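Q: Is it fine to ask for two folds in a single conversation?
A: Yes, each is treated on its own. Send the first.
Q: Here.
A: Result:
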Amino acid sequence: MKACKATYAIKKVKTAFSIRWWNQILEVKKKDIQALNKRLHKTEGEEKQQYEIAFSEKKRHSLKKTVKKADWNSFWNMCTRATDPFGLSYKAIVKNRHPPANCF
């Protein structure tokens, strides 16, 4: 076993980083929209119209709006907590021209 591990190159599994601003409220809204989408594609007839109304732009727009708001609030908090003027917040804004999601 040791010889196999020494001779063969073993790939490291990439782990997904966690986004700190993603919370339970956003997760519940996302799951709700996914469930409505699944029901919409499974049903036919009059029930389909009800799910289309429920799966309307309003629900998806509210999720997008809350995600953007949570992302921006997290970025704003990171920038206000910064003590070094040329630290992470400066690099996030100047180098990339937009706030990255993985620096919080």
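Q: Second one now.
A: Result:
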Amino acid sequence: MTMPAGIAEQTLNLGALGYYAPELATVAKPILLFKADVYAFGVILMELLTRRSAGDILSGQSGVVDLKDWVRLCDQGRGMDCINRDIAGGEEPSKVMEELLAISLR
């Protein structure tokens, strides 16, 4: 945030809804950890692959794949079913997309 005198001030953001690591949501006084950033990065990769936002996932809209359900599909070997076909040019998801999916779930 830029202040009137040109001094920059960083505000502490303990996580935005949808990007918030579950372990931080369960404690009264969360401590920022590298793991929380890694979790948020995984959510961003999932957003890119599905063309859905984390807000859509949380809103309960019809046709939206819940993040937990998506992880379950991945555990069953069906994670690629959730990847948006438009980003693959209408074709089957590529090896790169499969690798991004694997990274997002780490």
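Q: Anything structural to flag on that second result?
A: Two points. The chain has a mean pLDDT of 70. The radius of gyration is 17 Å.
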